[in-house]
Amino acid sequence: MRILFILLFLASLNLNAQDRPVGIKIGSNVSNLVGDGTQNIDLTVNLQAGFYMELPASEKAIFLAELLYTGYGFKIENTGETSDIILNYIALSVSSKIFLFEKFSLDAGPQVSLLVSAKDKEGYISNLKSDFYNRDFGVNLGMSYGISEKIMASFRYYVGLTDVTIIKNKNFNRAFQLAFQYKIN
Question: What pTM did the predictor assign?
Fold first, then answer.
């Protein structure tokens, strides 16, 4: 089902490429978990990459639809050992971009993500997926700056609104995201 969803989204990008700007996006996430029992948790750095499509709304506003592979996670210290836990998601986000100036915008919008894998980066535990819910829902808040006609830099903060851990504690993804977008057409 996930693969079908991804293929349909990519096909729609191709069909609409003549009408709407599309491109690729790559960047990094600096993330962790916040919530109950997270006092031994620290930040970790992971990748995000994918595709986007711009949907013009007015002269000063657009909607930005993104389909991304995004890695969240955290470092946790337990009995003197540090584990770097990676949560890999396929994320669909839709942001409103309000241009305050010609090249500068404020961005905000929801994101829904499906967990693809969860593992320890060092390989001590290969599959932690059963310890996490298979979905995450949250909000992105940030800003973007057009470096050139084809390249845009964006910085945003992701606030997860749903508990991602199956254990009794409630824990939420948080991430600072720095990315670059390259407009294909």
Answer: 0.84
